Structure formats: C-alpha cells, structure tokens
Amino acid sequence: MVTAGAAPRAPTRPTSPRRAPAAGTSTGPEYPISREAGDRPTARQRELAREQRYVSTLYARLDELRERTQRRLDEVLAQGATGTHQNRSERDTFAAMYAGRLASLWAVENGLCFGRIDLAPDEHDTATGERNGTGTPGAGRERTLYIGRIGLSDDDQRRLLVDWRAPAAQPFYRATPAAPMGLRRRRHLRTRGRRVVGIDDDLLDPDTLTDADHATLSGEAALLASLAARRTGRMRDIVATIQAEQDRIIRDDLNGVLVVEGGPGTGKTVVALHRAAYLLYTHRERLERRGVLIVGPNPTFLRYIEQVLPSLGETDVLLSTIGELYPGVRAEAAEEPRAAALKGEARMAEVIAAAVRDWQRMPDGPVEIPLGRHTLRLDRRSLEAARQRALRSRRPHNQARAVLVRHLLTVLARQAARRLGKGLIDETELEDLREELRTEPAVRAALNRLWPYLTPQRLLISLYTSPERMARAGLAPAERDLLLRDRPRPGEPYWTEADVPLLDEAAELLGEIDEAVLRATALAEEEAAAARAARDEDERQRLAYAQEVLELTGMAEMIDAGRFAARHQGDEPYLTTAERAAADRTWAFGHVIVDEAQELSEMAWRMVMRRCPTRSMTIVGDLAQTGSSAGARSWADVLDPYTAGRRRERRLTLNYRTPAEIMAVAADVLALVGPGLRAPESVRETGAVPWAVRLDDLSGLPEIVNAEIVTDGRLGVIVPHSRAAEIGALVAAKVEGAVAGPGAEALDAPVAVLTVTAAKGLEFDVVIVVEPGLILTESPRGPSDLYVALTRATGGLGVVHTGPLPPALARLRPREAPAGRSGPARR
Ligand SMILES: Nc1ncnc2c1ncn2[C@@H]1O[C@H](COP(=O)(O)OP(=O)(O)OP(=O)(O)O)[C@@H](O)[C@H]1O
Question: Where is ATP annotated to bind (predicted)?
C-alpha cells in the first residue's frame, strides 16, 4: 500500500485479530433461516474436527508456497549486483515480483479460509461456472468449495481454496433461500490463528436438513459477532461477511462512473476497499499497469483504512488525500473555512487562467535593451505580435515562451544586423545572430521580464500576495481580503489543502519547465527551503519503509536499507505502479475511488478527473454528511460536467455500525439537515440508551470520560472546532492514554479527542459528543456535522453539555453529573 505524500509503507505481518464472542440469532433482511448453534455438541465437534483437517491442509500449502517463493527470492538475490544493466534490471524485476508475492502470502495468514459452500448435486457447473471444487469428487454428488482470501491449488492444479473475488465465490455472498444460486449450504468458518473455533451454517434448502446440520445452524452469527467486536483503531476487512447488497456493488462493472450512496455505517468505505481488491483481481493486467487511486478525506482516515487492502493481498494501491495529490507539496497549513470554500469554487479555474494571462501582458511602451555601444528596441507592435504568436501556439505558458522568445530574437537579430551595417542576411546568419543574442545577459533579463518561467507555486504566491494581481484575475474586493497573504516564511507551512487543486490547475496551464532551466533560474528561497525539508522527510520515510520491507521479506541480511531505498527512488523497474504514480502529477489511473466524496470542492473534482481520463471511477459518499462548505449538495452538480449525466447510482440501506438506539437520536438531527431525509436502518440493537449529562463547566468532563473507557476498545470524544484545543488539553491531561488531535496516535489510543472533521469516516466503541449546541451552530453545515458525530459509535453514545440541550437531542436520557460537578442533570 502506498500513501501519497509519504514513502510507501510495507505490508505488515498480520497480528492475531480480536475475536468477538458468538452472537445470537437475529433475522436480517437478506439472511436465510437460522438457528442457534450448539444443541448437538458431538456432531458439532465432529464437524469442527473435519474442518480443522481441511484448514490445516490449506495452511500447509501456504507454508510451502512461502518457502518456495522465499527460496526463489534468495536465489535471485544471491546473484549479486553484477552483470550487464539488462541483467541487473531483470534480476530486480524478479526480486520485486517474489518480494511482492511473499508479502501477499504473509498478508493472508489470518482468516486464510473463512467459508465454504456446498452445491446441490449437478448444479455446481451452472451455479459457479467453475469446472471443479474441492471435497467430494464425482458426478451427481454434492460439491464443496472452500472460500478464502486467496486462491490456492495443489501441484496437480487441483483447487484447494477459491479466491473470494472469483466468480465461483459469488454465491457465498449472494445466495438467499429465495434465490439459492445452486447452493445447499453456506458455511462461515471462524478461526483463531490456524485453529477453527466455530462454524455457522445457513441452510438455503431447509428441506434437505440432516441431523448433523442442526448442530451448526446459526445464521447471522458471523455477521453479528463481527459487528459486536471491539474496535481496534484500524478498519478490518469484511471478506467473510460481505452482504448481498454490498457484493453487488463490489462486483459491479469496472467501466464508467459508479456512485455509491448510503447513510453512516452502511459500509461505503469498506465496500469501496473490497471493490478495489475485486477490480484488481478481475482486471489485473489493466489495473496493475495503470494503478488504482483511493482518495480519502484526511491522513488519519487513510491510516485507519490502510491495512484493509494488504489484508486482502493487495499492496499496490495509492491512498491519498486531496492535499497530498500534488507531488512535492505538503498541504499542512490551516485556513479559514470561508477562504477554503472560495478556493474550491469552479470559477477559480478562470481566476487561475487570468492570473497566468496577467504574466503574459506586454508593457505599454517599448522595451530597450542596451547592448555595448548600441541599444536594441522592441516596440509595442513587435511585442504584441510575439505574444499573439505564443498564445496561438496553444502551448502551456512555459512552452509557449519558446515561441515568443524566438520571435523577439528574430526581431532583435534583424535590428542588430542593420546596426552593424549589414543589409539583408541569410537564414544561417540570422540563426547565428539569434543564438548570440540569446546568451547576452541583458537580452535574457529582458525576455525573462516579458514572459518569465513560472512554477505553480510562484504563480499562486504572486497572486495571494498582490491585491492588484487578484483584482486583475477577477476577484472582488471582499474575496481579495479573504485570500490576501504574506509570502512564505522558511520552516512554516504555507500551502493548504484547498491550494492543492489550484496548484494542479496552474500546473496544467503552465506546463513543465526543463530541469536545467529550473536549476538555472534558481528557485525562490522559500521554495528551495520547503523542497529541502520535504526531501529530508521523504528520505527518512523511504529508509523506514525499506527497512520494513527487508525485514518482512527476509532480505534484511542481504541488502542494506539505504541501498534498497535508493533503488526504489531511481527510475528502476523495481518501483511499484503506486509508487511511480505517487511521484507523477500527470499519471492517469486505471480506476479512481473517491471516499467521503461529498467533501470534495468543485476544484478538487477537476483535479481528480484529470487523474482519471477514462472515467472508470467509484464515488462513495453521503450528501447528508457534507461538512465542508465547499462540498457537494447534489451528485449531478459536481459530476455532470465530467460524465455528461452518465453514471450508475447504487444505494446501501443498512447500517452495520450504529445500533438502533443511537440511530433514533441521529435521525432527529438528520431532520435538521433536510426534511424528508431518511436514516439507514440499523441491523442491531444493543439495549444501551444514549444519555446526556449537563455540567456547569467542562472541568468535570475527564471524570465522565474515565468512567466510560472501554477495556481493549476505543473511545472517541468529539468536540466543536472552536474548543478543540482547550478540551483536548483538558482530557489529555486528566485521562490516561488520551490523545488530542488527529493522527495515527489518535487511532491507537484508548481515548481520542477529535473534531468532527477529523473523526469523519472513523468509528469508536463509545462516543462522547461535547457541546452539541456549539457543533450545530459554529458552521453553516452544523446539522450535518452533529449527525456525523452522533453516528461514529458502535456501542455507547453520550453527550456532555454546559448550555441547554438542542431540542433535536430530546431523546437522550438525562444522567446525573458526577458528584460535586454540577447540580442534577437538567435540559
Ligand atoms: N458486511 C459486513 N460485515 C461486517 N462488518 C461490516 C459489514 N459492512 C459494514 N461493516 C462494518 O460497519 C462499519 C461501518 O462501515 P464503513 O465505515 O465502511 O461505513 P460508511 O458507510 O463508510 O460509514 P460513514 O459514512 O459513516 O463513514 C465498519 O466497522 C465495517 O467494518
């Protein structure tokens, strides 16, 4: 997995996941008849032992493949760094291939096999389109296929395990009693490490139930156990429990724009990630070459989801925020939401274009160039003619400069010839004179002033620091005030997330500058300092990554991290597609997935669409959760300009995260977002009633947080933006292990204090929302923000407030404040 703006991270060796206690039966919309397991323990144990034998065979095969791959890798590396360039590059390619394969084989250790389907006699061919399965062979008899994270076969090409993405596995996710797709039974295998610890069966043809079948019936147990499991701070894959409505989206066609809408917790993110894995599996060749990009709302969210794809065996996908999509720029500065909203408006494209044109204006009077005893002169007409030629070339600014320069050098050369007393000169003499003049410092300086080389950074800095330039680019006085800034100061972050699409837009209009020219025109001080800082950080991360990969693949003793990292850096076949794409602004991806897509501004969409000219995209979001004032109000508004109205829309309707008790509260807030909006239906209840505590002041908050901490789980304290620093400091000081603010640390901490923006897309076992009244009123999208905050919990929800409780939260059950903290709870 590669994260943009940072060096790629190595897939990590999975650790043992936390397992949920078995859950009881419930009736879900897509699930067939079910009964509680365990009433015939002996039959059940026999079944467990049978499955254990099979699963052990699979792990033995996995071990064998790992050993084999490791041996091949060792052989390639043992050849050493000798031979021709071609030999070396072939060896590197093989080494990369084996190292990648090895990483994938390690990544599937946990939950290697999680399911099995039994096909009714003679039905298997039509149901699966597959020639063979495993288990009992022979025509006219029941066939069994085991489903797992990857496909495995033995040395005679007999299939042992079917990859969950293969067509043969589809009935495992889609079959229902009404449409059994040839299945008699679907079995979920629960494993701990390599041990099979549980079996849950869905019988799709109840008429054929045998006595032994009764022992393992349990229906939705696998799903409910997974939903009730404690959160670890990292998203897990759901490969064992994908639901039918989700599976249809995961396996949807690669081409065209697919929009997936759904309320909070409906699995949009997790489905999008499984779709990426499915598409890579099904269209491997196309997508491996062009790559897959996943855009997420913030770096913390990307850390939250980054393990999902490696756990599905896919490590070569680029994860990026909008702010990280411009190579070499770190968008780390904060800015006022109003400024960000303005920068996000589509008309900024015209502003940037006007800002470029502003640099292409010619002076009103003539330009005089002293040259020894003579002075050459470019009059207004020649200047304008040169400019028109450059514009007519339709090349980007930095390339069109060559057209203008050539024209003006010709004018100057003719003039110089006349001054030197030469009459008509031929083409060769003219060329010689042009080249001579080109190297004259005075000529170069004059041409540079007329049409300078521009980097996107220089263009934007010159715009933001000059009200005159902003006015000429079409910005109104109030808008200029909003955007006006000082020049960058060394060591201080300058670029904001909303600047990135503008830099990208500018880069399109300006075009590349020759490397040599860039060096010669010496970057501005601050740009050079920023570039150096970025390079040092990249270097540090690259080394850390290299070390991780080497350890993972057992190569650490054969090659040092520095050399490995250097090889990654160069233009070597060793670079993965995602790594190459991350470094190339103009890379066109084979498929782009945008998560929390409602947050993207119009300018951000322009940038994302440039990365995906084929428009093979999955767009995932919920308009009711839009928090950014630059975000979307309708999909048609943001997508029609690029898709000509052609897009497929799918809806997810069930909420797997938030229990019904919490959704009832959230639904009242959703009504404030828009009348008629419907919250998704929760698949479970917990019996825990959401509560509210009123305090006189927030000094009592840490005590409440301490009382709610979940053993081995995660608690999120969600706070208003304007009070984030103060409340974060208070909780971090008084609650052990609490972390204030976003970042990987917040994900790993037992308690994280976050704003709604930072908590977007995340989830916690328990959530405490602080000062909901302020969250509602402090931004124009306040109701959406509060809706997002309330729907982050998988278990408990509490609200702590000092002012009156907003009427929309009337369903919360009032709770006593801790003794001495305030009087009795009141509304
Ligand atoms: N089929 C499933 N099996 C097990 N868990 C699931 C399933 N579908 C979703 N979940 C779980 O539900 C939770 C919510 O999923 P996810 O974060 O993808 O939802 P979302 O629609 O993106 O939510 P939001 O819009 O609020 O960010 C996650 O913990 C996810 O693992």
Answer: 262-269
